[in-house]
Amino acid sequence: MTTTQHDGFATGWYVIATADDLGAQAVLPLRYFGRSLVAFRGASGAARVLDAHCPHLGADLGVGGTVVEDTIRCPFHAWRFDGDGQCVDIPYARSPKIPARACVRAWPVRERNGLVFVWYDGLGRAPSYEIPVIEEHGSPEWTGWTVSKMTIRTQPREIIENVADKGHFPTVHGTHIDEFDNEFVDHMAVQRSAGVAYPRGGGSDRFRLTATYYGPAYQVTVMDSLLPNRLINAHTPIDAHSLHLRFGVMLKRVGPDDKMARYTEAYIHNLQSGFAEDVQVWENKAWRDRPTLCDGDGAIGALRRWYRQFYPAAGAMPGAAAQQEGTT
Asked: Could you give the CA distance from residue 38 to residue 67 in angstroms, rounded to a whole number?
């Protein structure tokens, strides 16, 4: 089990569901950031996320709650809450006036690229950056997302450190790296690499990719390989010691649907195998705040400095400083 020097959770956008997870009139109970949440989609079609526990007598709106028009109705006493978290109806109240404290926290939500995001900030600040649109999403020339989700006993810094950790690819994944570099600009951390992957099922795949984290928890990879693809890698903390890792793939169509389905299945299997190799390390390693590094370890120090900006207590890191490479 790893530990971190940072308290709480990083500020940023986090994936909490796919659009398909949250269908029309759906209610989805969630557990993230050490608290219970509920996502629902009302008559307007907009995705909403609220703190889950009713302010009345504490029932979980996500467990037995139902959508009524553009509100969610509590399963205990039928109090109804709108997408802003305000109670708008108490069916048995003798007075039409709603108690001032009859409200729950509403979370900022974005639905983009077939994913549902919430904004987390321990100080309650508004979003400071946006999630970019993936142009290929929804194109008939590309498959839709195939998304898998893993529960991992680790903390987010272990996941994001792969951005700069060139040295683990040949050892853990058997991948040969020819080119590798990093760039850190504002809320973005970029990895550019090229080489040859050797899937565990056999064969080889020469690739070139640009993988970009937008904030601390959502990465998009543009990869040219045997099958051009787009990947997402999104990790969301359940609590201080575990997280959900979602990874998804879209492939450029090169044949009929049945052929693409087989390609996608094989590609997802290779991704799952690769992440399983990482998970074995993540769940058993000890976090080093001050690791002993060598001159071939690259931009691990720069990545860590960039990451600090997402913790309010650490203060904002100037962009120029975050781009300087070094070790901690």
From this structure: 12
User: Which residues pair with residue 89 across a beta bridge?
Assistant: 80
Q: DSSP label at 292?
A: -
Q: Which domains does the chain have, with CATH numbers?
A: 21-113 (2.102.10.10), 146-282 (3.90.380.10)
User: DSSP states of 91-157 as a string?
Assistant: TT-SSSPPPTT-B-PBPPEEEETTEEEEEE-TT-PPP-S-PPP-TTTT-TTB---EEEEEEESS-HH
Q: How far apart are CA 74 and CA 47, in angstroms?
A: 18
Give the sign of the dihedral formed by CA 198, CA 204, CA 209, CA 215.
negative
Residue 58 buriedness (CB in 10 A; 0-12 / 13-18 / 19+): exposed
Q: What is the pTM of this model?
A: 0.91
| Coil vs helix vs strand at 173 | helix
Opening angle at CA 212, ends 208 and 217, nearest 5: 135
Q: How far apart are CA 109 and CA 125, in angstroms?
A: 14
- Asked whether the beta carbons of 196 and 169 are under 8 A apart, the reply is no
pLDDT along the chain (328 residues), means of 10: 67 97 96 98 97 98 98 98 98 93 98 98 96 96 92 95 93 92 98 90 86 98 91 97 94 85 80 83 92 92 96 52 32
